[in-house]
Design goal:
The chain has about 250 residues and is of the alpha/beta class. About 35% of the residues lie in helices and about 20% in strands.
Amino acid sequence: MGITALITDVHANRQALEAVLEHAAARGATAYAFLGDLVGYGGDPGWVVDTIAAQVEAGAAAVLGNHDEAVVKGSTAQMHEDARAALDWTRRQLSPRQLDFLAALPLNQRRGDCLFVHANAYDPAGWDYVQGRMEAMRSLHATDAVYTFCGHMHEPKLYHLSGTGKAGDFTPQPGIAIPLLSHRQWLAIPGSCGQPRDGNPAACYALFDAAAGELSFERVPYDIEAAAARIRAAGLPERLAQRLTEGR
């Protein structure tokens, strides 16, 4: 499998995705997995969908996120006002071909020992968040995959489950390779590429070296002002532009 770049929650942020793809290629990535929420919030949904569709055509994995589903099916009154405004706008920007691409994304993909899913393994269509050990254990118990990679949560996190059923978790430090022992199960959340929420505005993603059994979480600076300008130019809520700078 080589080195796989794990990218999630791009949220139509072209500048962040461009920076992450360049960073991953420079570090030897030969495969890509996109873990959902390609669109929503950001100002370049068409470019992001086309770019990821090209990656899928070349062999990348990609799964459906809740924002992708909402763009295809239409937003609901239960959604946050800012998210609903962005989703309604996004739907108007995308062509039928781009919407069809999103609609065809699976809820999960299994490739060897790896499971790719947006929210969790136990109920992918329910969009529950893996907020802590309890949800992580439930997700890991729902699959026999050694490695589960998911998005939805916009903060980097790593969980593991030992053969005796004990769970552990920690917040990774960027750029440090972590050995993923194969006798444990692992659930990794790379953090959001296009809208990080851990107080650090740099784009998040992770690199998985299958041969070495190592995972590194990465942070990539990008042109935040340009991404925010695209949101403002689209007439989307100002808060969506501000939070890129804040990383919240």
